[in-house]
Amino acid sequence: MAVLATVLASTTVGTAGAAEPERLVVDLATDTGPFHGGASGSLYGVYGDGVPSRNLLEGMHVRTVSTKAQDGPQHPGADALEVLPPFVDSGGKDVYIYMTDIYRGFPYQWPGADGPARLADFKAKIKKQVQQVLTMGDYKDHVVYVPFNEPEGNMFGTGDWSYNKVSWLKDPQHYFAAWKETYQLIKSLDPQARIAGPNTSVLYDQVKGFLQYAKANDVVPDVMTWHELSSPAAVRTSVAKYRQWEKEVGIDPLPINVNEYGHNYHLSVPGQVVQWVSAIEESKIDADLAYWNIDGNLNDSAVEANKGNGQWWLFNAYGQMTGHTVKVTAPHPNVQYTLQGVATLDEDKKQSRAIFGGKSGDADVVFQNIDPELFGTTVHATVQEIPWTGQVGDSAQPLRIADQEIQVGTDGTATLPMTGMNEMSAYQVILSPGGNGGAPAEPSVGWRKTYEAENATYTGRGYSKNGPEGSPSQVGKFATSGAYNVGGLRTGSDGVLAFDVEVPQDGTYDLSVFANSYNLYDLVKEQGPTNVFLRVDGKDPQELRLPLGYKWVVWGHTDTSVKLTAGKHRITLAAKDPDLGVTKGDAIIDKIDLSLRDEHVTAPAIYEAEYATLSGARPDYTSASTSGPGAVRLPKDASATFWVYAPTDGEATVSVDHLGGGRAGLSLNGEKLDVPKVGGGKEGTDDVRVFLSGGINKITVTGASRELALDRLRVTQSHGTLVPKVYQAEDGTVSGAAKVTDAYGFASGGKAVTDVGDGKANALTLDVVAERSGRHALTIRYSNAEQAPATHYNPDPIARHADLSVNGEPARRVLFPTTFHYNNFWDLTVPVTLKKGTNRLTFTADELPDFNGDTYNQYDQRSPYAPVIDRIAVTPLTQG
To answer: Can you tell me the distance from the alpha carbon of 606 to that of 620, in angstroms, rounded to the nearest whole number?
Structure first.
């Protein structure tokens, strides 16, 4: 099955006698309001500072976060006042505190002999929470209090832990009174407080009565909240219904946050989530992705600490929209599981952006009423695909599938026929003025194809065809390519899964195996990553380690390359290999993706300045010697920010292409780089070698003198200038209970250091050498599989921490997300300042007390330990 979408520009549609393709129509003349960006919210998506990284937070443009009360025992991490500073510093707007999450369990375990006693206990806890918020300085202005969460199923429902086992939906008197008391209590302690509610699981008709009571008693919420665990169609319908209630009750329009949306079937899948995004943006509300799985990964958007999957890149594209939204008419308006989209027009930037998806096959994207005063009679269209890469599968930047000039019709219309779309992908079109001589970029991928595991040939014992998995009728299940997957490659198996493939030419092909092993399954617990064996036509064996996940059917991908000649081949995945050994574990396989590693793929990644996030600058489409549609003129202190992908931690060459006119400085991940200014008096390229962290990097070019005309960045992996020095942890000095272990065979050299923590005496010390003083990247290879006892469906992995001291300076706390098994090692990079010569690194850890410093978590949700540490690499951040 081919999955390569293509696009051809045209101003005509269809041919005589042919079936008309579906049309997504973008009307640039109909302004539907300022761009809001509210769909990029997250429930329990932030664990703490660094999990996820600030790059992921800022680059995803996360607007709102709903999270637990500080020190609440619902889940590990995600404590409101620990999340608040890094979130706000990364551009976030509001943190919604679920005040009821100060209790354990769900339904909440609400202590007390009767309803009044339970409410009194809760009010005491509310008072403490507000007093803690008031210590946060200006950060407190970004707090929204949510006194009750899904009250109809919890505190004012029918269960044993409720107020009186009577649902407020039938008799609201006790809930209404409690709302009034808690509202007044919060406002008495914090008169500037914003309070949200009622936070019901759906928008019940009874909410209108809540509004009437709230108005009559002067306790109207500052933000109206409810959950939409339904479909995008319900978002538009519910918002319209609620707005009508406001009019009928006589309440001015309130901000809305639908602070839980989406299901497992939708989350991580760009083609599904874009349908929600379009409904949420059209409704001009905020909304938070639902929390079904683990916290700290931005609701299945983040991979490890600093990588994004396809869903992350969708929100990156969405958050870079500017200006105002315009009318988008879908072929099936407001119908879930069909082609939907959202589009903007920014007159100042002379740019229109559209993101869309949800349909396989072909469709026309039609831009109408293109203003010749803004765009001219020729437009430049860049078309990108944002593919699904699984919940735990890292994704590179969106694929460029077309970059071209299009003549606008006399009726002001331009049509882009999209062919071969994948319903799991989202797509972006960026429209700019054309006709200025900019050279269109080549597609970033040439030939590629997908082969489903359920269509492959299986021989040997243990075969299972699993599915159908997630679907429109089974939204609680996880999405899977083709709906089915294959099991059988496991400990003791002789299974072989054979894919018959055909490729167009001789060459090297990138191969991605989409797979999953459940980290707590018995056969998987022994080794961790399940190993299988790859061969091409029975030759060239490779051993692959497949991805772990927090549940079954949680997909990631393992990537390798194979050499193929033009024609047919058989690619096998086997549970045993005569040369390499046998499988340990248990895996399911979804599909394999093959793509030709040609000049499209090996060329540097291109990041056009006119598509960057701009501050104090606008695109300039008048220069005739640019790539793409234009350039950006950067006066002093104006900036262009790029979200740059790196597949691994290490050296990269950033080529700054410019047209001269001035100079600019560079910063990387918020740090000014100690490198010469780029630019000059005439057109040229400045190559800068920098250390990029695996995943997402924020590169900002800031005007320094005169006015640099910035064309683009080109980024490629390189080697030899920023050379890492690698230190094995076992070669350091361990003290106290910390010890060297050989229990984890996938550690480099077979050894690592464990049991650092539970007191500063149990430490690891390493002496590292820097050839010059300055900023360095410290890359820590680690593993962490600690998991707290959970009360319901959420796995509760713990992000361990290390307190890292350099040369005896005060320690910096570094969080390490779960790797799902202690024998599964990941890299995490932190920047440090080193002096020339020998530097001493000390790793310690201790349990963090609760916010007030007088108590500790009683449910083992704050680990006293550092992760298992395998090795340390030290690399200069930039060239000398």
So the answer is: 18
Q: Measured in Å, how far apart are the chain's first and last C-alpha atoms?
A: 49
What is the per-residue pLDDT for 1? 31
> CA-CA distance, 143 to 64, in Å (whole number)?
10
CATH of residue 327: 2.60.40.1180
Q: What SS3 string covers 85-104?
A: HHHHHCCCCEEEEEHHHHCC
Nearest to 532 by CA among 481, 581, 591, 467: 581
Q: What is the DSSP letter of 10?
A: B
Q: What is the DSSP letter of 84?
A: H
The count of other CB atoms within 10 Å of the CB of residue 717 is: 14
- Do 275 and 150 lie in a common domain? yes
* pLDDT (mean) for 517-538: 98
**pTM of the complete model beyond 0.90:** yes
* Count of CB atoms situated within 10 Å of the CB of 880: 11
Q: Give bridge partners of residue 619 from the DSSP assignment.
A: 632
Reduce the DSSP state of residue 440 to 3 states and report it: coil
The verdict on whether omega for the bond into residue 107 sits within 30 degrees of 0, i.e. cis, is yes
Pairing mode, strands 678-680 and 639-646: unpaired
Cα gap 693→652, rounded to integer Å: 10
In this prediction, residue 230 carries a pLDDT of: 86
The counts of H helices and E strands in the chain are: 11, 56
Residue with token string 């999405």: 479
What's the length of the chain? 880
Amino acid at 683: E
**What residue ranges in 377-423 does DSSP mark as E strands?**
378-386, 399-407, 414-421
d(CA 123, CA 115): 12
Report residue 676 as tokens.
């010469």
pLDDT at 9 over 80: no
Which residue range(s) make up the domain with 56? 39-319
pLDDT (tens digit per residue) in 345-391 = 999 999 999 999 999 999 999 999 999 999 999 999 999 999 999 99
pLDDT tier at 20, thresholds 50, 70, 90: confident
Write the single-letter amino acid at 202. Answer: V
Residue 301 in tokens? 């958007």
- Is 68 part of any domain? yes
How many domains does the chain fold into? 5
CA 748 to CA 737: how far, in whole Å?
A: 22
Average confidence score pLDDT of the chain: 96
- Domain end, chosen from 566, 595, 624, is at 595
The secondary structure of 750-798 as a DSSP string is G-EEE--BSSTTS-EEEEEEESSSEEEEEEEEEE---BPPPSSSS--B-
744, 862: one domain: yes
Q: What is the edge-to-edge ordering of all strands in the sheet holding 22-34? A: 6-7, 414-421, 361-368, 22-34, 324-329, 340-346, 351-357, 426-433, 378-386, 399-407
Which residue is it, tokens 């047209």?
A: 659
